[in-house]
Amino acid sequence: MINLRGKIITLLDAGMVLGFGKTTATRDSRIIIVEAKNEFLGLLVDRVGEVLEVEPNQREPLPVNMPAEQARFFHHVCRAGGKVLAVLNPTEVLAGNRA
């Protein structure tokens, strides 16, 4: 739990949620705040490389080789800046941590 401007935010380890293992907090670690269904959630990530803006028409389906237990946490992928980016589905991330 963290306090962000007077709001209590649940903090989750993104690596654990997505099945990649525990995130080791370092100087590069960041907390990404997301909102779903009027609820805020903090995701601990190992680092943030850059922030990219993508157009809605750049959306593509998730790759078929992505494991189903991880794919449910994503809306789609986008290509931007020569990279393929998976876009998180915060509603599923929240739902996956109530079970």
β-sheet strand percentage: 35-45%
CATH architecture: Beta Barrel
Overall spatial form: globular
Radius of gyration: 14 Å
| Helix/strand class | alpha+beta
Regions with little confidence, pLDDT below 50 for 5+ residues: none
**How far is it from the N-terminal to the C-terminal residue, by CA?**
18 Å
* Helix-strand topology string: EEHEEEHEEH
Index terms:
99 residues, alpha+beta, OB fold (Dihydrolipoamide Acetyltransferase, E2P), 4-stranded mixed beta sheet, 7 strands
Question: Summary?
Answer:
The chain is an alpha+beta fold and 99 residues long. Helices cover 15% and strands 39% of the residues.
Map the helices and strands.
Elements: E1 2-4, E2 7-13, H1 14-17, E3 30-36, E4 39-45, E5 59-60, H2 68-71, E6 74-80, E7 83-88, H3 90-96
Parallel strand pairs: 2-4
Antiparallel strand pairs: 1-2, 3-4, 5-6, 6-7
3D architecture notes:
- Strand 3 and strand 4 (39-45) form a beta hairpin.
- This protein starts with a strand and ends with a helix.
- The chain has helices at residues 14-17, 68-71, 90-96; strands at 2-4, 7-13, 30-36, 39-45, 59-60, 74-80, 83-88.
- It has a single domain, classed as OB fold (Dihydrolipoamide Acetyltransferase, E2P) (Beta Barrel), CATH 2.40.50.
- With 99 residues, it is α+β, with helices and mostly antiparallel strands.
- It is 15% helix and 39% strand.
- It is built from three helices and seven strands, in the order E-E-H-E-E-E-H-E-E-H.
- A four-stranded mixed beta sheet has the order 1-2-4-3. Strands 5-6-7 form a three-stranded antiparallel beta sheet.
